[in-house]
Amino acid sequence: MGTIEDRGELSSEARHLAKKARTQLQAAREAINSRDTPMSLLSGSVMDRTWANIHRAEVSILRLSGEAELAWWGREVLARAQQHLGDEDPLRNELESQLRSNGHHVNNHFRDLAVRALRAANDAQDLERARARSFRNILLTSVLVTSVIAGLIVLWAYYDPAAIAQKLCFRPQANLVCPISGTPRGGDVLIVEFFGLCGAALAGAVSLRHMQGTATPYMVPICLLLLRLPIGALAAVFGLLVVQGGFVPGLTDLDSSAQILAWALVFGVAQETVTRLVDQQGKRVLSNVRGPSRGFEDDDEPNER
């Protein structure tokens, strides 16, 4: 900005544009230095405000740049367009054609094209980031809801053991076999959910070999791992209820507490069949968030699954 303003030959419209760019950059600094609240972290309002002002300032600076400053904008705008605009995007194709014939330098003849391409790429980047944040918020909400349900089931079991805990007990012979002892109690549901959670944690640890790091600040892979835990706890309870109901041929009466808990662990691991689908959706969302290293990679990478 200082280089542009030091030229001393700005029109009134250009001076207004330069002042606007400075205001936008200052707004971005204030946004990024503001104190985050839980709501702002979930909504992403601070990050959205920061990037929106930075992107608007970039467009203003490109519009103000003189011939000397325009030269280096070519590769920057082209890289941004290739990262965030599709192969069939007309703006991207026209920009590539103009830059190819001009040594990858922007000049006044197609400055407006570069401005429109940069604005479109920035808008696409903001949309990619918003989608990743929305998916993260859905995951966090799912973790919260399933955790509350699992907790309520435990509380219900302590309040009325006959309603839930007794359904996790089996009678292979004369004596009743429960997860802890021979009498249904609230702790039976708690320990079954704990073993289901442990099974989900083991499955999550194994699934780490398929997970990749991400440059986004939304911790989507971590949220995917967290989602497994309450689902594993619920899967253990509901899985044993299915066994109790006789829906599994040849598996009706479990003979010991250890066998009941072993099946709770198995059902906790089995939640992977459900969460794997969520993992695949998470990979699709993250693959559309293109950072500086994206746009030049082979998108047809083999799927390890």
Shape: elongated
Domains counted in the coordinates: how many?
2
The number of helical runs is: 12
Spatial extent as radius of gyration = 28 Å
Oligomer: single chain
Biggest sheet: strands, sense, closure? none
The proportion of strand residues reads under 5%
Number of strands: 0
Order of H and E elements: HHHHHHHHHHHH
Ranges with pLDDT <50 over ≥5 residues? 292-305
Name the average pLDDT.
79
- Residues in helix, %: 55-70%
Keywords for this entry:
single chain, 305 residues, mainly alpha, 2 domains, 12 helices, 67% helix, 0% strand, elongated
Topology:
Layout (H helix, E strand, L loop, with lengths): L1 H4 L6 H22 L4 H6 L1 H20 L2 H4 L2 H12 L5 H11 L10 H49 L26 H22 L12 H25 L12 H14 L1 H16 L18
Helix pairs in contact: 2-4, 4-8, 6-7, 6-8, 7-8, 8-9, 8-10, 9-10, 9-11, 10-11, 10-12
Describe this structure in words.
The protein has helices at 2-5, 12-33, 38-43, 45-64, 67-70, 73-84, 90-100, 111-159, 186-207, 220-244, 257-270, 272-287. With 305 residues, it is mostly helical. It folds into two domains: 2-129, no CATH class; 134-287, no CATH class. Helix 6 (73-84) crosses helix 8, helix 8 (111-159) runs parallel beside helix 10 (220-244) and helix 10 packs antiparallel against helix 12.
